[in-house]
Amino acid sequence: MNDHAPPRTEEQLEERLSRPSPADVELLGRLEGDVVVLGAGGKMGPSLARRVRRAAEASGRPRRVAAVARFSDPAVARGLEAAGVATIACDLLDPGQVARLPAFENVLFLAGMKFGSSDRPDLVWALNTVVPANVVRRYSASRTVVFSTGNVYPPVPPRTGGCREDDPTGPVGEYAQSCLGRERVFEHFSRELGTPVVLFRLFYAVDLRYGVLVDVARKVWAGEPIDLTVGHVNVIWQGDANSRALRSLALAASPPVALNVTGPEVLSVRAVAERFGRRFGREPRFAGAEGEAALLGDASRCRERLGEAEVPFDTLFEWCAGWVEAGGRSLGKPTMYERADGRF
Q1: Between the chain's N and C termini, which has fewer beta carbons within 10 Å?
Q2: What is the pLDDT of residues 98-139, one digit of tens each?
Q3: Is the Cα torsion angle 148, 151, 153, 157 positive or negative in sign?
Q4: Beta-bridge partner residues of 146
Q5: Distances 16 to 5, 8, 151 between C-alpha atoms, Å
Q6: For 61-90, what is the mean pLDDT?
Q7: How many Cα atoms occupy the beta-carbon half-sphere of 243 within 13 Å?
Q8: Rounded Cα–Cα distance for residues 231 and 294 (Å)
Q9: Beta bridge partners of 253
């Protein structure tokens, strides 16, 4: 498959998500130590772990690559093992289990909870703040990339171009507040113990089976109304987010480095829906008044340090359109990007 050929099957999609870039391979050619993906059972973890494994092999410097999760779905663990990724079942909320995990010099931390946070705020806070404390104590000497979210910022008008890493935080709702709590826990231990950390503030990764573009495309295709309460978004191809996460290991420092991770465009939800409408030959329907502010990030620092994305927006748009048009599978996990109240 050439670099911009659209994935047409889930097998092709998974291969594309986990295919290492030359920059990924170069990084693992010089990075010392083994790599673990913690919280690897979610949407991004499996493809990220496989990308690390493939990049390590291509670099000529084999190393141990492991994935840690509860693995409530055994098929996820089997798939990772088949790809050469060691799997370790662990409840990261249990400090005893975390303390028994093997040593790793490089940690990609993906654990956390978002959806269901309105029903179980206590569990959200535990998973998003207690788990980090357990993990950073175990891996206090390891380079650590901590997956965070643009939700730690306040909504801003699109004309600003989005929040920058040095702008004040202002999380809306308990999920976002707990995510800032996650960051603060890692920051505390980074400052106290010298743990090198990157706070990886991701804005809306898109896998063709889920993501903001997929949510909008499916509603246009089905003739469902598109809520404009949050009228603007940023997006990035999940494969590019995977690559940036891996290569952020080289940026880890104490005190932590914050890094906004998303595409360069501030996208109008209305304009994106209208473009899908032209692509599908269907008139999009809209609901609600277009909001004056949205969760938006300026990822200039990321592009300066890690380069441009491999998959630009126009390509990602066409991939999403083709996937939906062909009846490609959905994970049934809407992003809820249109929620302005922070309740997920």
Answers
A1: N
A2: 999 999 999 999 998 766 556 788 999 999 999 999 999 999
A3: positive
A4: 109, 199
A5: 10, 11, 27
A6: 95
A7: 25
A8: 7
A9: 197
Ordered domains of the chain (ranges, CATH): 10-206+236-263+295-309 (3.40.50.720)
Helix axes 131-138, 174-193, angle to 10 degrees: 20
pTM, to two decimals: 0.95
In the chain, the amino acid numbered 87 is T
The mean of the pLDDT values for the chain is 94
Structure-token pair, residue 177:
């507040």
Please answer whether residues 296 and 234 qualify as being in contact, where contact means their C-beta atoms are separated by less than 8 angstroms: yes
Percent of the chain with pLDDT over 70: 97
DSSP string, 89-134: E--TT-HHHHHTSPP-SEEEE-----TTTTT-HHHHHIIIIIHHHH
The token pair that represents 251 in the structure block: 């940026």
- Which tokens go with 58? 């291509």
Helix or strand or coil: residue 182?
A: helix
pLDDT digits (tens, 9 = 90+) for 256-294: 999 999 999 999 999 999 999 999 999 999 998 888 899
Please tell me the predicted confidence (pLDDT) of residue 1.
41
Contacts of 78 (CB under 8 A, 6+ apart): none
